[in-house]
């Protein structure tokens, strides 16, 4: 797939087909993604590739934690509030998702059911968990992790896979460590759900917005 096409046609996939992703394909993607840039070529990332029974256990337990109202304690704290226009955009995605699923905003039960699906990682057949050593300065490691994360998403897309970057996958790191042996010395940064997209599902089809170029670029000559 041509690079511009890959960038502009990738989208977050929130419903997957049940088919598993062949391990050689995941390897091919990660083999290429290791060429992502990083500060001073430090390559601070570690990627846990989680599939099969281990993933199944984690999906169920992560969902249950949400349903039980367990207080999240992510290694990467989530923003509590956004200034405008970010707040508006954040709210808009939530609305678009609910509309695509025909869930009325006031239907709290259906919203919680959907949140449960998200915390079950949309039943994706593979999860890539990106972590970095706690001992290194986090800011640049976050940039580096973001670079490889996006590279993985684009490569997955180029191979006909779908992905969803999921803060919801790393809200309960203690739970992650109970099921997936990521040591305490590593901070879990983000997870990416990967699988074959259900292209027919409305949740994978809604129109997404982006700010115009002029809204975020300044040109100096
Ligand atoms: C750091 C990060 C965390 C995200 N966490 C979630 C999440 O927990 N749940 C979800 O449905 N989407 C999540 N997303 C996906 C965003 O909502 C999505 O990228 C954004 O709405 C733009 O849509 P697009 O990916 O389809 O272009 C996350 C994206 C990023 C970059």
Keywords:
221 residues, alpha+beta, NADH Oxidase, 8 helices, binds flavin mononucleotide
Supply the CATH class of the domain at 12-77 and 118-205: Alpha Beta
**What is the residue-mean pLDDT, rounded to a whole number?**
97
CATH superfamily of the domain at 12-77 and 118-205: NADH Oxidase
The amount of beta strand, in percent, is 5-15%
Task: Fill in the CATH topology of the domain at 12-77 and 118-205.
Answer: NADH Oxidase
Sequence stretches where pLDDT stays below 50 over 5 or more residues: none
* Structural class by secondary-structure content: alpha+beta
Oligomer: single chain
Question: What kind of sheet is the major sheet?
Answer: 4 strands, antiparallel
What are the SSEs and their pairings?
Layout: H1 3-9, H2 23-33, E1 45-51, H3 52-67, H4 86-100, H5 108-119, E2 126-133, H6 138-158, E3 162-166, H7 173-179, E4 186-195, H8 213-216
Antiparallel strand pairs: 1-2, 2-4, 3-4
Helix pairs in contact: 2-6, 3-5
Residues 11-12, 14, 93, 118, 164-168, 190, 208 line the site of flavin mononucleotide.
Could you explain how this protein is built, in words?
The chain has 221 residues and is α+β, with helices and mostly antiparallel strands. The chain has a domain at 12-77 and 118-205: NADH Oxidase (3-Layer(aba) Sandwich), CATH 3.40.109.10. The protein has eight helices and four strands, in the order H-H-E-H-H-H-E-H-E-H-E-H. It has helices at residues 3-9, 23-33, 52-67, 86-100, 108-119, 138-158, 173-179, 213-216, and strands spanning 45-51, 126-133, 162-166, 186-195. It has a four-stranded antiparallel sheet with strand order 1-2-4-3. It is globular. The model has no long low-confidence stretch (mean pLDDT 97). Flavin mononucleotide (FMN) is lined by residues 11-12, 14, 93, 118, 164-168, 190, 208.
């Amino acid at each position: 797939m041509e690079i511009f096409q890959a960038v502009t046609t990738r989208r977050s996939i929130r419903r997957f087909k049940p088919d598993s992703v062949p391990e050689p394909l995941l390897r091919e993607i990660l083999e290429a993604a290791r060429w992502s840039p990083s500060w001073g070529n430090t390559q601070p990332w570690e990627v846990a590739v989680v599939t099969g029974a281990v993933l199944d256990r984690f999906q169920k337990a992560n969902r249950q934690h949400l349903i039980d109202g367990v207080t999240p304690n992510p290694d990467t704290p989530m923003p509590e509030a956004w200034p405008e226009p970010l707040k508006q955009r954040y709210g808009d995605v939530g609305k678009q998702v609910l509309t695509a699923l025909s869930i009325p905003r006031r239907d709290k039960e259906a919203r919680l059911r959907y949140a449960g699906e998200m915390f079950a990682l949309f039943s994706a057949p593979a999860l890539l968990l990106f972590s970095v050593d706690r001992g290194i300065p986090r800011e640049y490691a976050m940039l580096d992790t973001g670079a490889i994360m996006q590279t993985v998403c684009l490569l997955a897309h180029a191979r006909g896979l779908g992905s969803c970057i999921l803060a919801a996958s790393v809200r309960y790191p203690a739970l992650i460590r109970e099921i997936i042996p990521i040591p305490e010395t590593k901070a879990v940064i983000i997870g990416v759900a990967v699988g074959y997209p259900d292209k027919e599902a409305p949740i994978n089809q809604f129109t997404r917005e982006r700010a115009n170029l002029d809204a975020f670029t300044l040109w100096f000559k």
